[in-house]
Amino acid sequence: MEADRLTPLMVLRAYASGVFPMAESRDDPEIFWVNPRRRGVIPLDGFHISKSLARRIRRAPFTIRTNTAFADVVSACADRDETWINATIFDLYVQLHDLGHAQSLEIWEGAELVGGVYGVTLGGAFFGESMFSRRSDASKIALAYLVDRLRAGGFRLFDTQFLTPHLRSLGAVEISRADYLARLHDALGVEADFDRQAEIPSPQALLQRSTQTS
Hints:
Layout lengths: L7 H9 L3 E3 L9 E3 L3 E4 L9 H9 L3 E4 L3 H9 L8 H12 L3 E8 L2 E11 L2 E9 L4 H15 L4 E5 L3 H4 L4 E4 H12 L14 H11 L1
Helix pairs in contact: 3-4
């Protein structure tokens, strides 16, 4: 599709129907729609925190923030040899963020952004787009805090689009397109709030809640 015809509203409608946009590479201006036959999701009551990751969460000298550097998170996710995030995709997600429909969770080490994840929110669905890590386990820690936040905000669906070994190790599963669309329909009817959790929990509180729900 021609990039100059895309609008944030069109993208939101696409997500609501079960498809999402991608580009072949950062240098390819064209956008295409993806509708996977099998879909990756993280059950919000089934996120797995291993003993080693729990130790890392307790000991890591990181500060967790949300939506303080959204564009920087997207840029960091695109900062790799191969990426589907071209200039149009970048601009669209920044616009969605400005409209309140795209969020970031960031891992900071002092003044340095060292990890994070971003995605689109619509109703009770969170569509995870990409994540990055510049420190050991930073992206896993970001996902742990994100899942806790989504649960607190009343979300029903955490869509990871595809299932990778990395995500599988954290509890992600693969479901059929029909199952996904049913879950999506249910989630879109929910009024969730990414900012309902006013404060970032302590590592101890995060791990305690994760043990109770997983």
